Amino acid sequence: MLRVAGVGFGYPGRQVLDGVELSVRAGELVALVGLNGCGKSTLLRLCAGLLRPTSGQVLLGGDDLARLSRRAAARRVALLHQSAPAVPGMTVRQLVRQGRYAARGPLGMLRDGDDAVCARALADVGVAGWADRPVDALSGGERQRVRLAMALAQDTRVLLLDEPTTYLDLRHQLEVMRTVVRLREERGLTVLMVLHDLGHAARFADRIVALRDGRVAADGPPGRVVTPGLLAGVFGVAGRVGLDPEGGWPVCYPDHPLPFETVVERDLQNENHIH
After folding, report:
1. Prediction pTM value
2. Which residue, 136, 139, 133, 208, is CA-closest to 167?
3. Does any domain span residue 111?
4. Per the database record, which ranges form the ABC transporter domain (predicted)?
């Protein structure tokens, strides 16, 4: 459904992505991981049609996103940004309705009331009972669920999430991750998400794609990708990897940071690079 074909992107004086190749199949949940600044969020914005690649293409169902208007792209791909400024006085209902802009347009947004898509989004994330509460009165975890409902209100088949668990405590991190997994199954969504926590990626994703210096360093199922070589080559730490005794997913035990110049790139590729 989503293909990143040889994509490069940069800003004046700084190349961010360099020849990235990535395919996400329909219904798949893929986690993007890597150090800060490696290009994860930039890649998501390219996949949402908010940025145009300087080389290569981002294809959605065979269509080049660069040829679509932003509104047309938003009718096909929903992006939940890492953070968004609070709007004083806005209610949960009003915020979630903002997700309908791409479908309803400026005139349609003037009509009062929720449509069926909005009502379903509120219900699916479990926030319908808060519809008339001010967003700025909610906790961080509650606010993130509301923002997820706003993304669902775009009513797309592709959902992009940029670090949806950032700034949340452990309980709310798990709540958000389990909600995403449930919605993916119930709605048949294709999900590409940036995750800061490698443990969450290993537990919940079908595949992990690791970026390093703007390139794909590893791509494959968690059980094959999450290794000591990945910890060293992508995250710059020495560590061990075991298996959860009940679920069987990889569990990381980082020990200490490594200087990157001591990492042998050949070992990383031999151990982790899977296509």
Report:
1. 0.91
2. 139
3. yes
4. 2-238
